[in-house]
Amino acid sequence: SQTIHQWPATLVQPVGSPLSLECTVEGTSNPNLYWYRQAAGRGLQLLFYSVGIGQISSEVPQNLSASRPQDRQFILSSKKLLLSDSGFYLCAWSVYPGYFSNYGYTFGSGTRLTVV
Amino acid sequence: SQQGEEDPQALSIQEGENATMNCSYKTSINNLQWYRQNSGRGLVHLILIRSNEREKHSGRLRVTLDTSKKSSSLLITASRAADTASYFCATDAGYSTLTFGKGTMLLVSP
Question: Is the CB of B92 less than 8 angstroms away from the CB of A46?
Fold first, then answer.
């Protein structure tokens, strides 16, 4: 069966420090991978998505970046965190998106990031 | 920008009652999906309805879609305290990504 692992669950980082959040998927090949951020009481904001190794699309200009070094690994990074980067970060995967899809996204359990 | 907008923002009911949440969106879609999020957790996919479908059922869930009005509703019948969560609609407009609304917070009291 397919599973998605996201870590760490919580993270407290000082302003200006680097960030690396990792997400891995098991049990599927060539998934579409996504990073979303959720501010308190708000909906989900798409940050990055990837349809293949090395292919990254950015939805929102910011000081975050994403990389996909392996088929089932998606990494969210920052060189210098800002206070505004605080939030709940969610990784997700999907296959066969679009009209003929019968499947939704599978989300990880999320990382609560607090920048202090 | 937000594609889907849920209504109401918050809903409080008693166990056994039905809960209805609505979602409106702006552009043409391939499908619309509903997700559930328990506090502090990831989202869980509940149900997907395609643009050529009008109604779909899954257990105690009933989803309707009206593409002419660009709206959808999620009905949870015979609610339980365990249904307490936030519910999000998400639209697939064919760009390889989903766009989520801000969600409806449902509180079911015993």
Answer: no
Contacts of B52 (CB under 8 A, 6+ apart): none
Question: What integer pLDDT is reported at residue A78 of this predicted model?
Answer: 96
- Strands of the B5-7 sheet, one edge to the other: B5-7, B19-24, B71-76, B61-66, B55-58
Distance of CA B84 to the CA centre of its chain: 13
Q: What are A60-115's pLDDT values in tens digits? A: 867 999 999 999 999 999 999 999 999 999 999 988 655 556 678 999 999 999 99
Spell out which residues of chain A touch residue B31, defining contact as CB-CB under 8 Å.
99, 101
Residue B38: phi, psi to the nearest 5?
A: -80, 155
Three-state secondary-structure class, residue B55 = strand
Residue A105 with chain B: CB contacts under 8 Å: 33, 35, 43, 45, 90, 98
